[in-house]
Each structure stands twice: as structure tokens, then as C-alpha cells.
Design goal:
The structure is a single chain. With 159 residues, this protein is α/β, with parallel strands linked by helices. It has one domain (3-157): CinA-like (Maf protein), CATH 3.90.950.20. The protein has six helices and five strands; from the N terminus they run H-E-H-E-H-H-H-E-E-E-H. It has a five-stranded mixed β-sheet with strand order 2-1-3-4-5, with helices on both faces. Helix 2 links the parallel strand 1 and strand 2. Helix 1 (3-15) runs parallel beside helix 6. The chain is globular, with a radius of gyration of 15 Å.
Length: 159
């Protein structure tokens, strides 16, 4: 459990808000962090790990053509995943991630990078970005999750 997740929960409880996740590159790390805090069922509605294009399209309503053209790794894909999680879980906020956790020569990916997006209940994407990652696969996944959670906490603090 991280201090970030604890702070997120405190702020969500104070505001009587909830969060959900849609993950690809982070493979459930956001869910694990958010659910690791005692009493998380009051603020964390749930999450989905969607690796395959068909799952992102079917369950998160990601545009299938965009997903196909970008190999599901694109800022707009992350944005659509966040909106899809809002709808799927009926939460006040959603955090979504997609990216490459390691080199992928078939796609000419020389180093890991990710996109993450955060959306609110009005289905507005309130933040999205691309981040460059370092290290091996698991480290890149952890970095993405940590960066997304820290940014979400900053947004909550500024509300």
C-alpha cells in the first residue's frame, strides 16, 4: 500500500466520490494500489485490465479503427478507456493506462513509454499525457501506475 493511495482515499471519502480504472500497460497495478487501503470499497468501484483490442472496443467503447491503427497505444485510446471505465463502473473519476512496457521491435519501439488519462463524472478528460519510461518491463509498469496515481492525487488536491 502506498501513501499516495491512502491520500487518494481520504480525499475521495471527504468528497464522497469514487474512482475506477481501465488498465493495459499497468496490468492491474492501479487496482491493486487503490484496493490495498483499508475501507477501499467505499471509494474504489472496480477496474478492468484490457490488453486485447477487442476487449477495449467491446467493454470500454474504444474506437476500433483508432485502436487498430495505433496498436491500442495512443493518448486518445487512453482517453477513451477512461471514459469507458466511467460508464462501465458508474464512478466519479476514472484512470486509464496504455503503452509499451519494453522494446517492441515489430512496431519500431526502441524504449518503453505510456499514456495515461484521468476523466471525471461529466465524461470530461481532465488530464492526459505521454510519459517516457526507464528500466525493464515491471519497472516501466510500476512507473506508469505511480505517475498516474500521483497525478490523480494532485488533481484531487486542487479541486
Amino acid at each position: 500500500m502506498s501513501k499516495t493511495a491512502e491520500h487518494i482515499q481520504k480525499l475521495l471519502l471527504k468528497e464522497k466520490k469514487t474512482v475506477s480504472t481501465a488498465e493495459s500497460i499497468t496490468a492491474g497495478l492501479l487496482q491493486s494500489e487503490l484496493a490495498s487501503v483499508s475501507g477501499s470499497s467505499k471509494t474504489f468501484k472496480g477496474g478492468i485490465t484490457a490488453y486485447k483490442l477487442s476487449v477495449k472496443a467491446k467493454l470500454l467503447n474504444v474506437d476500433i479503427d483508432l485502436a487498430h491503427d495505433t496498436d491500442c497505444v495512443d493518448e486518445e485510446v487512453a482517453r477513451q478507456m477512461a471514459i469507458g471505465a466511467l460508464k462501465l463502473f458508474e464512478s466519479d473519476y476514472a484512470i486509464a493506462t496504455c503503452g509499451y512496457a519494453e522494446k517492441y521491435e515489430e512496431q519500431d519501439i526502441k524504449s518503453p513509454f505510456a499514456f495515461y488519462a484521468i476523466a471525471d463524472i461529466k465524461q470530461n478528460v481532465i488530464f492526459s499525457t505521454r510519459v517516457e519510461l526507464a528500466g525493464k518491463r515491471v519497472e516501466a509498469q510500476k512507473q506508469t501506475a505511480q505517475l498516474a496515481l500521483k497525478r490523480f492525487l494532485e488533481l484531487l488536491n486542487n479541486n
